[in-house]
Amino acid sequence: MLVRATGLQNGRVRYLYLGRGAVICTFFLLTSLFPPQQHAKSFADDLMLGRLLTQYNVDAKNRGTELNNLLAKLVEKPPIEQLTGINRFFNAFSYKDDIALWGVKDYWATPEEFIGIYQGDCEDYVIAKYFALRALGVEDERLYLTYVKAIRENVAHMVLSYFETPEGIPLILDNYELRIMSADKRTDLLPVYSFNAKSLFLTNSSAGLGQALPTDKVKNSKWEKLLNDVSRMNS
After folding, report:
1. Is residue 186 within 8 Å of 171, Cβ to Cβ?
2. How many CA atoms, within 13 angstroms, populate the side-chain half-sphere of residue 69?
3. pTM for the complete prediction?
4. Could you read off the pLDDT tens digit of each residue along the chain, which spans 235 residues?
């Protein structure tokens, strides 16, 4: 069972303990960060571009500008072109695990940090893609951060799922597989659970959404911190 969920565990294996019924997650709205809009929200404003320059280097600032330009080009495009453009942009970044990069087992970088340092692990790719697509105006209910087991690599992994409809089979954006493919074609992934800023669902990997989990039983400090960090940077 795949879970549309807001919950994570520290360490290498970050699965929810569904068998024990211990689903602990937190739900946060991104309405203030990404209100309904017809035009793409600039991903990196002047303040962020300034921080990318002073805290990182001119290449980091240029990446922020490049992403802004990409969003402007994609805003009127069909969803598949938006997904493809954002997926391709961030998949050009280098992979590096949290221990090597941050000195901790599990660190969630903000999109600004990811753009600045130009490398990260699977969560960082997914988080950056999620926020970039939200900046394009893609509805939150279509986007879910999804924990899976990557069977070939035998590791816990995260991908971004895009649902055209709640009952549909999602498209998968992944830094392991550069092509965007539907979940039923990704036999190398074993779905575990999914989450976004609003919702937590138990989900059937072949049928889309499943059972919703109650929002009053949830806590997720990493997701809360990330949203707070992004909100603070955008304020």
Report:
1. no
2. 7
3. 0.77
4. 343 433 333 322 333 333 322 222 322 333 334 444 445 567 889 999 999 999 999 999 999 999 999 999 999 999 999 999 999 999 999 999 999 999 999 899 999 999 999 999 999 999 999 999 999 999 999 999 988 999 999 999 999 999 999 889 999 999 999 999 999 999 999 988 888 877 655 444 443 444 444 444 445 566 566 666 666 655 5
**Where along the chain do its domains lie?**
2-234
**Ramachandran class of 137: left when φ > 0, alpha when ψ lies in -120 to 50, beta otherwise:** left
Evaluate whether the domain defined by 2-234 bears CATH number 3.10.620.30.
yes
Characterise 93 by phi-psi region: left (phi > 0), alpha (psi -120 to 50), beta (else).
beta
DSSP track, 172-194: EE-SSS-S-EEGGG-TTEEEEEE
Q: Is 141 helix (H, G, I), strand (E, B) or coil?
A: helix
* 154 class by beta-carbon count within 10 Å (0-12 exposed, 13-18 middle, 19+ buried): exposed
Strand partners, 173: 160
CB 50 within 8 Å of CB 233: no
> Which of 201, 232, 231 has its CA nearest to residue 29?
231
Alpha helices by DSSP H, the chain: 46-51, 58-74, 79-91, 98-102, 111-117, 122-135, 221-234
Rg of the Cα atoms in the chain: 17
